């Protein structure tokens, strides 16, 4: 399958056994989206202030110029939310993945230091938290290069994974393969297991992500931590039950300016404590899932 050919069948009724380490029934990956400081901003050349995935989404239609309230809601994520969420994971010795926007991390060296010390892997979330499908091919090529160089400086390791804001362009995957060094991307939402595709005749791994098991629901209807906890628990329980015969993967997306607030963080804490009681669940980094798939399920021939 090429990178743009639509596939409505996938693995079908007989998905492969992922053979997760230790015979785990489920591979569980938490993603901390670090975006604050890279979002569209008048100070960074855009015409408006970004409000998506904040309490002010849809409220700033009358603001002329900079929306200082929205800027503060983003800054909460890097000033407060990041540290609270990191503490929750580290108190439990749990691994997670950082979806890091390069410019955002450049603007918080202390957070970069904490990420380096944590052992979390960093997947490139772009140079900026902007819509790649609005970039020209040359602009996108430049953004990918800048993100790689920046993240290598700030985190000490070249990123091996990639994820755009919401949706890639029709050029993204080809440009990632052209850039080289990426062993997977997560710009896909249509499956619960990794799969191989071919880009320019070369095999390329896709590790699907989720906008469903995601704290973005707080910006689109879910209002309490209890509702979100219940939703995540139901998803986990279903996948765990199915994992007795068909192990899968579960991705959970977190945004520091959303789940970092106390009431929402309390729900995350309850969920972390819940999943930690299962000995046959592999709570792991996204990079480790990619490496496992490369090793155990190598790319098929063209």
From TrEMBL:
Any Pfam family hit: Polysacc_deac_1
Xref: CDD domains: CE4_PuuE_SpCDA1
Matching PROSITE patterns: NODB (PS51677)
Ranges where the NodB homology domain occurs: 68-284
Domain of life: Bacteria
Name by which UniProt lists this protein: Allantoinase PuuE
